[in-house]
Amino acid sequence: MMNLTDSPLLKTIVESAPVGICILNAEDLIAEMVNGKFLEIAGKEKNAILGKSFWEPFAEISAYYQEALSQVIVTGESYCTNDVNLMVIRHGKKEQINVAFVYAPVPDENAVVSKVAVWMMENTPQVRNREKSDQATDNLEKILNMLPASVVVIRGQELIVEMINDTNLCYWEKSREEVVGKPFLQILPDLADQPFAGQLRRVIETGEVIDVKESQVLFTMNDGTIRETYVDYTYQPLSDLEGNRNGVLVMSFEITERVFSRRLLEKYAQELASANDQLSISNNKLAKSEARFKFLIQEAPVAIGVLHGRDLVVETANQKILQVWGKTKQIVGLPLAVALPELEGQPFLGILDKVYTSGKAFYANEISAMLEHGGELKKIFFNVVYQPVAGLDGAVSDILVVAVDVTEQVNSRKLVEKSEQHFRRLADLVPAKISNALPNGEVTFFNKQWLDFGGMSFEDLRDFGYHQMMHSDEIAAFQAGLAEASRNGVPHISEMRFKNIDGDYIWHLNVASPILDDQGKITMWVCSTTNIQSLKEEEQRKSDFVSMLSHELKTPVTSIKGHVQLLLRLLARETGSEFLGKLNSSLSRIDALLLQLTGLIGDMLDLSRIDAGRMDLKKDRFFIDGLVTEVVEDFRLSHQQHFFHLTIDNNIEITADRDRISQVLINLIANAIKYSPSSKVVDISVALAEDEVLLSVKDYGIGIEEKDQKKVFDRFFRVEGHNEKYYSGFGIGLFLVHNIVSRHGGRISVESQRNKGSLFTVHLPVL
């Protein structure tokens, strides 16, 4: 009896199969046959597998899968798994891959499992991120309906279907009236427990591109049955005219038939192995097996044909290959050149002749051919194998043709590539400098703005040119900021200087945003860099002006204040006249206003010192409770109509600049008075909490709306009252307070409600 693994036909089919196949002896799991695809995926030499126990070269596979293989031999039932990680060495490099295994039992004539066929397919995911257009053109609907893919545009958190093509309607089995303008989950409520709605919302929120292959989609039919389908799909974010993300472009390809066909092919391959095992029993059984083999070829879900002799006579052609060729069974028995006359001038007849004369197989992916379909030449793309088959004399007698029509996938990919080129051109039109990088920091894209700014090619800018353009003072902080963004998954925003083509350093606002997947892992970086040199120069001009103005005002104000105080002292010696009383009152008011003006000038000087980096702190050791008591007593004397409630923990000693901390407290109490026109009560407290001092000022005034609470410490921001009531001031007091506290290593917080007052709390370190 001929051994199964000795069958030339089986060897040919196994070797030409587009998946990895290894045949094991069921008794001791010794590998008796292995094809090139299996060796290629596993990264192994043939002698590392053939003749050895299957688990010897794959020792890292868990015991669970080893037990599953044993159960296949016992039960005679196939086993499939789609998620096995392997560490392999391919092309001299170590890499981890993910594969799918199928254990298929092969019974002998007594229905006893004598062999096990191990099928291995690599399914390591490739994440492809593509940018999609932010607006549909006027004729988008017509273009969408011409596409072979299913396309739908979904907008907003409610996932409203805005646009859908006919292919997608056919796949959903819905009419346009049932779909357009309605929420996605209202149209397809049976998808609520499947991941699609969550993914759509995530794309809108993050701008992430989601690309999924062979996703199962289950539909509940009207009769209660489940329709099982499979699709490849891509979710691309869409933006409105203002650049706000508000939608998703979904492009999908239904591959249900391909998935089911692959399963059917696996089933047929098992049956084919079983049929070939019977070849050695008898001539009668051999004839029956041959008939079964021809039946399997005819029913196979891939295009298969057999060409005999050097004339390439079409001996066998299944229905799939006839469909691909655009012909009928009438071509069987004709030479290929006669059956397909349009091949003249194309390379295929020459390639087949070389396969016949050399005995070497030919493999090609996405090779194109012009074939006549219905009287019209069409361009078809194939993945094809031409496998020579030897006769009894050892010479080549036939060529086995195995082909897969990939026209739809190629055309769709080219369409996406064309769209991607379009969007890259759009990125070149954006005034900002845009770049993309892999999770490890390797840059994959610089737009034209970057290339023009640096005067470099993409390769030069990518290979350390980017870091050479950075100002050396900012590199360390930038790297630390990226590390923090990587840990926390939040954008890093910084102001940086980059050197242009003329060698000048230009200020930019740089935003480096990590894009995360479902598990929170970074899939890519998106960076936007905007020129802010003119803003910086304008800011410097303003700072210089404020500094100059403050110094120029300080001298005459000081002189005026001196004369006013002299007049007040002289008037104090005079008595009796009503005129003198009024004059004394007016001069006292002028003195108070001069004090206020002096404070404002001091604030502006401090502002210019901060901008110039010259606000120095003179730190000493002192009791902060004593300082707070002094400041509050001064306010009690100058604002006798107010009530200041003071709560103090005594003997709290800190190291700080006493005058600057006094300035902080004065600003907070003055604000509490100013913004409480209908209340005369201010609460002040000092407390020790672990290793920090809490200095709090609470008022019962107009309060601060929640949307403004993060802005109150910004430069020049001012809180407005009811009916746009005006409150005097430049809006720099709290900015100075925040800066002083920060320079002491502390922080300041605010709690407030509209019309219920505000509580400001300063947190200062004790040491």
Q: What do you see in this structure?
A:
It is built from 22 helices and 27 strands. The strands form six sheets. Strands 2-1-5-4-3 form a five-stranded antiparallel beta sheet, with helices on both faces. A five-stranded antiparallel beta sheet has the order 7-6-10-9-8. Strands 12-11-15-14-13 form a five-stranded antiparallel beta sheet, with helices on both faces. With 767 residues, it is of the alpha+beta class. Helix 20 (624-638) packs parallel to helix 21 (658-674). It is elongated and about 140 Å long. It is 39% helix and 30% strand. The longest helix is centred in the C-terminal third of the chain and has 39 residues, at 533-571. Strand 1 (20-25) and strand 2 (31-34) form a beta hairpin.
The fraction of residues assigned to DSSP E strands is 25-35%
Strand order of the largest sheet: 2-1-5-4-3
Overall, the morphology is elongated
Radius of gyration: 40 Å
By DSSP, the count of extended strands is 27
The termini sit apart by 92 Å
Largest β sheet strand count, sense and barrel closure: 5 strands, antiparallel
Kindly state the percentage of residues in helix: 25-40%
Structural class: alpha+beta
Q: Which ranges are low-confidence, i.e. pLDDT below 50, for 5 or more consecutive residues? A: 125-140, 279-293
Task: Write a concise synopsis of the structure shown.
This protein has 767 residues and is α+β, with helices and mostly antiparallel strands. Helix content is 39%, strand content 30%.
